[in-house]
Specification:
The structure is a homodimer.
Chain A lengths: L8 H9 L17 E3 L5 E11 L10 H18 L3 E11 L5 H18 L2 E9 L5 E11 L14 E5 L4 H9 L11 H12 L8 H7 L2 E5 L3 H12 L2 E5 L7 H9 L3 H7 L5 E6 L4 H11 L3 E8 L5 E4 L17
Parallel strand pairs in A: 3-4, 8-11
Antiparallel strand pairs in A: 2-5, 3-5, 6-9, 6-10, 7-9, 8-10
Helix pairs in contact in A: 2-3, 4-5, 4-9
């Protein structure tokens, strides 16, 4: 073997990633070329994949712990919105030449935290060197009882539209991290910290999985902005729909800022990175879902309704007039 | 929506990738946030992931058709070596800003060809923009009857070591593509083309899947070089082993070159990209596997044996002396 002063691929796997797979049946301590899953009887497997790139999905100055946490969070968030319980994930890691061990240790820490928070473990992966930015590509697998996966395209005319949690915190937090100033005095230091934290550590709605499965006709996670994601949900379902801007739930921090600078509402509903769940339910299920969410300690807000296909898709202001949005959501291209 | 002169993410998916998912049950025409697989009764799911980067795993001048074909091939190759039948795959694509549509069309074509050759279809994916090199990250899923996955770590003392096909063609083909000259007159134009093609279009051993499952105690695909991969197989299995260099199967083209430049044998067994299957079988199963391979039209060669752990791992020359290898296999770090 050539003498190499830097860490080998085998060492990277053994030192940083095998510990993350220690509890995974079917990961074989990452000593095989593939992982095995044995879905429990009566369960289907939901698979989703999302890529996270340095400088694109996170600030290049971002701590590796946060990068890794977010990479798993965004994948698990997709599973939650499909009603699937997270089980395992595969990680493809493209690393700069001679990666710093401190950086790798940060990635390991972030994944370890995320695994614990989300209830899934590492199944396998691949590690390569890239001349480009560090890239984490994760595929997550979850289980759902046969036939119970919830789709983006299941919305029907007359459905109520709900969203969990609050919208816009992450987008506003990112603005702050990028140097935007909230209007003087409109945000306390705690509120600034809260908004930044919502960008830094997205929290997929694990507690909502069963509720989504039980009640939602259609669901998706809000990752690219509420406005654009609502548009996508309606388009996929072949329906129209409207959201009342006044009903879109905002945190105290976001509301403080928006009160002083109303144009920030636009950032809030188009900025993305919320990782809340947007869902529709039949009108007669609205009481049930509100009760179920209350019992699970999840805030959920009715924000609009699904209309016929020819009604179009709109966000309405308090006078019932459609908002003009220069761009409905984040797009990579 | 902002007016954009270039292609949108939605258009990329609809135009280039949805056709690849048209036949996939559970892909929902790529209109959902995740894909669904319903493993047939009695089947386990094998998951593997591999990344392919422009300029690292393929020449930057490489045709997109070849890049895409190889990206799927290397994943399917892992499934073959585990005894799993390829079913579906997810594709994460990191693209340069404003990708050329001709390039995307080439990616689509290469994947379409590979799908047909390997018998699997697209289940889902993600598309992002990168300031770095184009990156294809694929996760492939295959099915294997419960409990029959074949592992890298199953080799036992006394096993015979086999490898399918011929070794070193791709490594020598890459050398040629990089401008190396074969010794004058040692290779015909057809032989040069053959070696390059083996690098350009790896052929995972689909026809060997059932045979691996039925007979192999341990198996892995040869992707990083026979020498290093044999070392990994022995290490994972906790055994020693030896390969007889003289028994390593080479193509006519590779043999012609090696005859004139014997040092090219070193490239052949350490270069990688063979995508053949390295496997071990119990001594009493050797006739069976040779018969099964002959019936399936697969060349398979006995190249060595598995020894006790304290015997070490070696490649022996014709006098029984261990070869000195400066580097046993390709490593990214």
């Amino acid at each position: 073997m050539a003498d190499k002063s830097h860490i080998s691929e085998t060492d990277i796997i053994a030192r940083y990633f095998a510990p993350l797979a220690a509890e995974t049946p079917g990961a074989f301590s990452l000593r095989d070329d593939a992982g095995l899953i044995q879905p429990p009887d009566g369960m289907d497997v939901v698979l989703t994949t999302d890529v996270i790139l340095s400088g694109v999905h996170f600030l290049e100055s971002g701590a590796p712990q946060d990068v890794a946490y977010k990479a798993l969070a965004v994948n698990v968030s997709d599973l939650c919105a499909k009603g699937a319980d997270p089980a395992v994930y595969l990680l493809s890691l493209a690393l700069p030449d001679n990666p710093e061990e401190r950086w790798l240790e940060g990635i390991r820490e972030g994944l370890a935290e995320a695994q614990t928070d989300f209830g899934c473990t590492l199944l396998g992966g691949d590690t390569v060197r890239t001349p480009g930015p560090a890239t984490l590509s994760i595929t997550a697998a979850g289980y759902v009882p046969k036939g119970q996966m919830v789709h983006r395209f299941g919305a029907g005319e007359g459905d109520m539209v709900y969203v969990t949690g609050t919208i816009g915190d992450a987008a506003l937090g990112l603005l702050l991290s990028q140097g935007a100033n909230a209007a003087k005095g409109s945000l306390s230091a705690d509120q600034v910290a809260f908004l930044r934290e919502r960008y830094r550590r997205p929290q997929p709605r694990i507690a909502a999985i069963e509720i989504v499965r039980a009640h939602a006709n259609a669901a998706m996670d809000v990752s690219d902005g509420l406005a654009g994601d609502f548009f996508k949900l309606c388009a996929a379902s072949g329906v129209g729909g409207s959201i009342d801007a006044a009903k879109v739930p905002t945190s105290e921090a976001a509301a403080s800022w928006i009160t002083v600078q109303p144009e920030r509402f636009h950032n809030a509903i188009t900025g993305g990175d919320d990782y809340e769940i947007l869902l529709t339910v039949s009108r007669n299920a609205s009481a049930d879902i509100e009760t179920a969410c209350a019992q699970a300690g999840i805030d959920v807000s009715p924000i609009g309704r699904i209309l016929s296909a020819d009604s179009g898709v709109e966000i309405l202001d308090e006078n019932g007039n459609p908002l003009e949005l220069s761009q409905k959501s984040f797009s990579h291209f």
